[in-house]
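S.,

Sequence below, as promised.
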Amino acid sequence: MPTSLPGRKLLIISGAFPPANSGEAHHALLLSSQLAERGFDVDVLTSAGAIPAESLQVWPLMREWSWRELPLLARVLRSSSPDVVLLMYIGWIYNDHPMITYAPTIARLLVPRARFVTQFENVIGALPGRNGRAGQLCALGAVGAAGVWKVHYRFGTLFRDSHGIIALSEHHRRFLTARFRSSAQKIVLIPPPPLVMLSPDTEGTRRRGRHMLGVDQRHFLVLYLGYVYPRKGLETLFRAFAMLAEDRPHARLGLVGGPLEGFEDYADDLRRVPAELGIDDKVGWRGAYPWDSTDGSTMLRGADVFVMPIDVGVALNNSSIGAAAAHGIPLVATRGEQTEPAFRDRENVLLCRPLDPEGMAEAIKTVMDDDRLRQRLAHGARRLAEEWFSWGKAVDRTIATFRD
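The prediction came back faster than expected:
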């Protein structure tokens, strides 16, 4: 039988928060705001430089997330006196330092009545060696002192001492369940809902979105929206579109999104590819859009088909596919070695092989030429969004992890 919540005071810990330009930062802001709307009194501990947010108490204190800042973490835990702590974890936003991987243990000592939930943005864990020999030795020392059966080199006590664990994809849930069998009962699946501010679903919005990408009603707009970095499959998409454009001259390709931090040179190189392929006049690249605007949603509403060309295959944690599904756009995506059951070929997505420009071009052509399939995929995308990418359901499921 479900038990009541321990209380409504919530501390969210996230190393990324606006104005930082990353999916993790936007996820932290939107989830915090949604929980505040549900009646939670939300504090956010985050990195220096973060901006205030309406209805949230933001603590932009942390610069290194290292052991020397442990007193700051302790201070916020004591000051906020939370009933629940939600840690949004991915190694890189904490500088790959192991300190934060011991946060559940620290919270249990300082606020023993609080529930602690860890949300894994991916399953890599901290990389202590990136913090020099001292960081590596410190992590190894902690493991040695507590015993390898209690502390993990890359995950610290996140599994041992978290009361609940959230995975963002079925792949992640399976990986974590297999690796940490003793914690399997704690792990739940909650994919990220759309990380864009929604625009009105009107014909006027659609026209504005297409105008932003330089197309009009004569064109068929193929759209990619997301961050730009290696393994997103954008080289494959460009080559696929070059093949498509040979006999579909009314097709246009829109790309929306800027480079992930550290991949600016890669993005610059990628921008030269359309010209090399002779399709520069058919490609509109908008770059990053303001995180606090509806521009991303507006351009999504202008699309005729959305393509997720990722090299390893689509997964539920790809927030861009969730955003596109929420807008009811027909989806073309690459299949992985084990495509997650939520994605059903020719029902809510048309799947093609990764790293295969010919196959991707044929998939897009199929959607262009088959009105009934395009309509079926659009309806399927909406159903996919209702089941897996709804903010309402995501928040309900997150609150359920706060229970005893």
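The longest strand covers residues 41-47.

Coffee later?
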